[in-house]
Design brief:
The chain has 405 residues and is an alpha/beta fold. It is globular, with a radius of gyration of 21 Å. The longest helix has 17 residues. The strands form three sheets. Strands 1-2-3-6-7-8-9-10 form an eight-stranded parallel β-sheet. Strands 11-12-13-16-14-15 form a six-stranded antiparallel β-sheet. Helices cover 27% and strands 20% of the residues. α1 runs parallel beside α7. The N terminus is likely disordered. The protein folds into two domains: 324 residues, TIM Barrel, CATH 3.20.20; 65 residues, Immunoglobulin-like, CATH 2.60.40.1180. The chain is built from ten helices and 16 strands. This is Glycoside hydrolase family 15 protein. GO terms for molecular function: hydrolase activity.
């Protein structure tokens, strides 16, 4: 979702009543978190490039059909990080990959999951991890707004206007969305309880929070799920939010449309901060919106993520399209086998960003830097066009992967 700082203020005293002072004195069932024991290894063992899936899948029906569950699982397993949110996705008729559903007419009041969906989701998790042992899976928990069916109309958890009507939320859903009253201490507890249930189900490795997060919501989630489970929050390239949330979260969903939402230089600076200051393991995911055929923009996004982080990348559709958000192609560029990074980013004399991996080198040419040349001592394969050589030109706001021969 696009950044929104609506209702940023909160009654701290009320919030403290349910989350405690430190947010660390949690009572989480150890046996319910056994599936989290290898999270750090899954994050660390993956090779690069490393793509992620934000709610919606690869949208290439001929290459990656999605008609059956097994096909959807196979397409999802190409990514190393994914999250889903059943309430909104199912209302858009978007089939889920894991498929866990809340057991309640009003999902916002649920205290358990549909048993059949839980059984199936655990099976689907096993299938996904068989195809991709390094995959990390999160569940989005609604905290800012929700569809009309999320709660009874007279629930105290809705945010109300002065005239008693509900405050309008997101405007593009299949049913009306209304703002949630996350000032309400009992609703903060609900957010925490739902987060704990999602993690203790054994299906999800952690929680995703959309809409820039809110500090007491973030604290409530961390308090509820304990230290091992992951939290990712959609804070774009906002370092101020990163500073606020750093001790509680593992990663940022950097949903960006540079020049309108975020900037290329802001993304670079934010990646530097998020990768160094958030809790480990880090699960930062950079998504840039763009036209699917704009391969230079896709390469610029991918190579910026590769040179400036150990994070995940997505090049997705622009949100204003009349289709579900975050649909995307799968690019052969992402199939290059770079291995793992062996060095940090280096800025060359001509302004190019360079990072060396075990099987190749990534070059990113930042915005504003002119077309520049990169030279290698030995022959390399340029992934974008399969050319071979020792000298290559990189256009402004572009990049490439070079595999050692």
């Amino acid at each position: 979702m696009i950044n929104s700082h609506y209702f940023r203020s909160i009654t701290l005293t009320a919030a403290a009543l349910m989350i405690g002072c430190s947010g660390t004195d949690v009572d989480v069932k150890p046996q319910a978190q056994s599936h989290l024991s290898d999270i750090s290894e899954r994050v660390a063992q993956r090779t690069f490039p490393s793509a992620f899936m934000a709610w919606n899948p690869v949208d290439m029906a001929e290459q990656y059909p999605l008609d059956t569950l097994d096909q959807r699982i196979a397409a999802a397993a190409k990514h190393d990080l994914l999250w889903e949110e059943p309430i909104s996705q199912l209302s858009f008729d978007t089939p889920l990959v894991l498929g866990l559903e809340w057991q309640q007419q009003h999902a916002g009041l649920a205290t358990s999951f549909n048993p059949a969906s839980l059984h199936k989701a655990l099976e689907n998790r096993k299938k996904l991890l068989t195809l991709n042992p390094n995959l990390v899976m999160l569940m989005e928990i609604r905290w800012r707004d929700a569809p009309n069916s999320y709660l009874p109309e007279d629930s105290p958890f809705w945010l109300l206007n002065e005239d008693g009507t509900r405050v309008q939320g997101w405007k593009y859903g299949p049913e009306p969305y209304y703002m949630l009253n996350y000032h309400h201490p009992e609703f903060l507890k609900r957010i925490g309880d739902m987060s704990r249930l999602a993690v203790e189900s054994g299906v999800y490795d952690g929680i995703m929070l959309d809409w820039s997060g809110e500090i007491n919501v973030v604290k409530a989630v961390r308090h509820a799920i304990g230290d091992k489970a992951l939290i990712n929050v959609n804070i774009h390239d906002d370092i101020e939010d990163g500073e606020l949330f750093a001790e509680y979260i593992n990663g940022a969903f950097m949903e960006c449309n540079p020049s309108k939402l975020c900037s290329w230089s802001g993304i670079e600076k934010a990646l530097d901060f998020f990768e160094s200051q958030f809790r480990s393991p880090h699960i930062n995911g950079l998504e840039v919106w763009g036209e699917r055929k704009d391969l230079a923009r896709m390469r610029a996004t991918t190579t910026l993520a590769l040179t400036s982080s150990n994070g995940y990348v997505l090049y997705g559709d622009v949100n204003p399209l009349p289709t579900p958000d975050h649909l995307h192609d799968w690019y052969s560029f992402w199939d290059a086998d770079l291995g793992k990074p062996t060095h940090d980013r280096k800025v060359l004399e001509n302004g190019l960003f360079q990072r060396v991996f075990s099987r190749g080198t990534v070059i990113h040419n930042p915005k504003g830097n002119p077309e520049s040349t990169v030279n290698f001592n030995t022959p390399h394969l340029r992934v974008s066009d399969q050319s071979r050589g020792t000298e290559f030109k990189i256009g402004s706001l572009d990049g490439d992967i070079f595999l050692a021969l």
